[in-house]
Design a protein that fits this description.
Length: about 375
């Protein structure tokens, strides 16, 4: 068997970006291994038996402020412009989340202006000296009543933790606005891959230097497939055989329902902070733009066991992750990137950015030993 330059574990965004760059720009030979039956990682989408395009692992909406990342991925897909809008089911009403001027006016039957809503929220806010937890962030901005209506129940359901037990960064993902902007994200670039994520990944990985091996745990093959270096994007604790114990990752159960109607709910996603065992329902047709007489909805039920979807940002987990990270420090031939391997609650664009940075690092290290006029020039000699 010929030697691969890189064995890449995981065919999600982290693995696919590195495979694509290393193969097509640096001419490296790549074997990418994934234990699932498909490429795309958690963004994998496919047509269900009724012919509707669905996201197997929950709704994925691409958004970024980086033109570089949008253009980079744009080489492998056209974009369908899409701006996600979410309603929260609160007090028997469906109101916009993130909380904004419309939310407050609809919830309380008022007609406030932007500056009035700012005063209103300030009068409710409980100012905190130090913002440490996910409770602090929200209570500090909107006060306890709105915190309890929109955040407390949702967060407890999603994480099985009280917001006071989670890092501030979790609920800080959701801003508060004094304007009427009902969009979930305000990034400069927002869109969906026109023919889906899986098609985009197929385009990224269709290079003669890239071989793909599916349905395979890397531990089954790492000792028998010759390779110079490894890029690992799976859970970091699994890599080290849980030597310091398991890192908590939160999981989800997805329930898909296909209905005999063209559209079912009034927007892409509805959040349920205070009712139902699920956190949200998403109707894919809003995201994909697909025309079809039927429609598919997915409901997300948080759970502890199962596929690792979310790192759990809180101090004790960060400490445990640090211990694993220290083990990686001396490893010159294995590189860690992605949401699971670096235990970071990253969006897709952040994972792409992280992996492009790793690519540049790998290439610059090798650049120090590049061939010039047939002579190997190492960093030490120059
Ligand atoms: P993954 O996609 O998890 O890929 C890792 C791959 O490694 C997997 O395919 C796995 O099978 C494989 N693997 C693991 N262990 C092994 C092993 N031992 N051997 C072989 N293969 C292995 N981000 C956004 O920007 N917008 C969104 O709207 C959004 N929505 C989300 C909704 C949900 C429900 C979830 C869970 C995440 C969402 N994200 C969203 C985040 C997004 O999914 C991640 O940022 C991104 O997919 C991470 O890519 P990755 O390559 O790091 O990890
Ligand atoms: N959140 C909440 N209520 C909401 C929306 C979000 O309490 O209506 C909190 C919750 O803790 C959630 C976090 O904010 O896990 C981040 O929300 P986001 O929609 O970004 O979650 P993701 O799409 O990553 O699951």
């Amino acid at each position: 068997m010929s030697m691969f330059d890189y064995l890449i574990v995981g065919a999600g965004f982290a693995g696919a970006v590195l495979a694509e760059r290393l193969a097509s720009e640096a001419g490296k030979k790549i074997l990418i291994v994934d234990k699932r039956h498909h490429i795309g990682g958690n963004t994998y989408d496919h047509y269900n038996k009724d012919g509707l395009l669905i996201h197997e692992y929950g709704p994925h909406i691409f958004h970024t402020n980086s033109k570089e990342i949008y253009d980079y991925l744009g080489q492998f897909t056209s974009w369908r412009p899409y701006e996600h809008r979410v309603l929260a089911s609160v007090d028997g009403m469906l109101v916009p989340i993130p909380i904004n001027l419309n939310t407050i006016n609809e919830l309380y039957g008022m007609h406030l202006t932007s500056s009035e809503v700012e005063n209103f929220l300030q009068s409710k806010a409980e100012l905190k000296e130090r913002i440490i937890t996910s409770e602090d962030v929200v209570v500090n901005k909107v006060g306890r009543e709105l915190y309890e209506k929109f955040f407390k129940g949702y967060t407890r359901k999603q994480w099985d933790l009280d917001p006071s037990e989670l890092d501030a960064s979790v609920t800080a993902r959701i801003p508060v606005r004094n304007n009427r902007d009902n969009r979930y994200f305000t990034d400069k670039f927002q869109g969906m891959p026109l023919h889906g994520y899986t098609r985009m990944f197929e385009n990224m990985l269709s290079h003669p230097n890239i071989k793909i091996m599916l349905n395979t745990d890397y531990k089954e093959v790492r000792d028998i497939i010759p390779h110079r270096e490894m890029i690992y994007t799976g859970p970091i604790d699994y890599f080290f055989d849980y030597c310091y114990g398991k890192l908590p990752y939160r999981s989800l159960e997805f329930r898909f329902e296909t209905l005999e109607c063209e559209t079912y709910q009034s927007t892409g996603t509805i959040n349920y902070p205070n009712e139902h065992p699920y956190t949200r329902s998403t109707e894919f047709k809003y995201l994909t733009g697909q025309k079809h007489p039927k429609t598919t909805i997915v409901y997300e039920y948080p759970k502890e066991d199962g596929d690792p979807y979310y790192p759990v940002p809180r101090p004790e987990n960060a400490e445990l992750y640090k211990k694993y990270q220290l083990l990686t420090a001396g490893m010159k031939k294995v590189h860690f990137t992605g949401r699971l391997a670096t235990y970071k609650y990253y969006n897709m664009d952040q994972v792409v950015a992280q992996s492009l940075t790793l690519y540049k690092k790998l290439i610059s290290v090798q650049g120090n030993g590049q061939q010039i006029n047939g002579h190997k020039v190492s960093a030490l000699q120059t």
